[in-house]
Amino acid sequence: MSATMRPELASAMARLGTESAFVVLAKARQLEAQGKTIVHLEIGEPDFDTPENIVEAGVKALRDGFTHYGPSAGLPDLREAIAANSDMWRGTKTDPAEVVVMPGAKPVMFFTILALCEAGDEVLYPDPGFPIYESMISYSGAKPVPVPILPENNFRIDLDRLRASITDRTKLLILNSPSNPTGGFNTREDAEAIAEMVMGKGIFVMTDEVYKDIIYGQDHFSITSVPGMRDHSILLDGFSKSYAMTGWRLGYAVAPTWLAEVLAQLQTNCNSCTAAFVQMAGLEAITGPQDSVKAMAKEFLARRDLVVDGLNEIDQVSCHRPEGAFYVFPQLEGFETPINDIADGLLTDGGVAALAGSAFGVHGGDSFRLSFANSRENLLEGISRMKNYLAGVA
Ligand SMILES: Cc1ncc(COP(=O)(O)O)c(C=O)c1O
């Protein structure tokens, strides 16, 4: 078929966004192919290998014949293990029927928004925030309503602004703590105050807690643990970040059964099910030894301090010390050059791949997101290159 015969895309496609990390990664790889050395601070994935016991469980499962279709909601053993595991850290009693296993945490977002949101609805989401939230809200036809997450509030959610953004059209509130891209953290008191704000108003909460195991000092608290919230919320979690399993594609939802059934139905329509041998690897991840999770979090803590201290020594850069996840979100002060141009130049001329904060929402426009999921040596090299590059920017 010639290009002129190409069918029109569906109009909703014009509303679908993307994730700039994948775009910048592709550009960085091109530069590397031309012989440049690039320090990669754009990628949102642990640089550690998947722990050996998990790899072995996946390989064994392949050999044992876990290579067929399975139930759309997930293998019963894994759903049970996820329910038991989430009870341990949420202090709740979860029925395995509330658990749906998916190929990554992202499909939980995609399916939940497709299942709940449409034109006429308003959806509150963190800004700066994970770009797929806004992308999917817009795609569904609902109105995205950003809730500012600002450095002056230590990147915690601003409860007053949240309250002021709620209308009688608010259908869904998306929370993310610890957060991508800011590393911000909502406290137990925040979660309780938010629960009080939404309960009784028909507002459902999707809480993205994929970074819950990477926190520095505080205790993670899920809004789903607040009494009464279980019926009004969906927990979105996964194995990518906690167990360095990004490429395996394994995540899950814990939701009221009426929604869990709908998500499983969407899964039947889309993926059929999650790869069975991957689920068996996930079973080992949550039931096996947890030392590697703790070791990774400890190393991330050391890198966080190294990066924050290094960035704060650069003129016109100010960096908040994140309380979770493996990102920093430093602000640039007093540059005339737009942030996107600085990020482009930093990559092509400075040899550092970083993401402009504008890719995370209107409130991220004066910042960069840097991932510290890289070796200490590379992080120091990246900071030194950044310092040199910024010294020449107007
Ligand atoms: C906040 C947040 N939620 C969800 C995801 C998606 O995780 P997964 O790889 O399990 O789909 C990411 C990945 O970067 C993320 O940062």
Keywords:
single chain; 7-stranded mixed β-sheet; 39% helix; Aspartate Aminotransferase, domain 2; 2 domains; binds pyridoxal-5'-phosphate; 394 residues; alpha/beta; Aspartate Aminotransferase, domain 1; 12 helices
Summarize the structure.
By secondary structure, the chain is an alpha/beta fold. 39% of the residues lie in helices and 14% in strands. Strand 5 (170-176), helix 7 and strand 6 form a beta-alpha-beta unit.
Overview of the structural elements:
The protein is α/β, with parallel strands linked by helices. It folds into two domains: 147 residues, Aspartate Aminotransferase, domain 1 (Alpha-Beta Complex); 234 residues, Aspartate Aminotransferase, domain 2. Helices cover 39% and strands 14% of the residues. It has twelve helices and 14 strands. It has a seven-stranded mixed β-sheet, with helices on both faces. A three-stranded antiparallel β-sheet has the order 10-14-13. Strand 5, helix 7 and strand 6 form a beta-alpha-beta unit. The termini are far apart. The model has no long low-confidence stretch (mean pLDDT 95). Pyridoxal-5'-phosphate binds next to loops. The site of pyridoxal-5'-phosphate (PLP) has 13 residues, from loops.
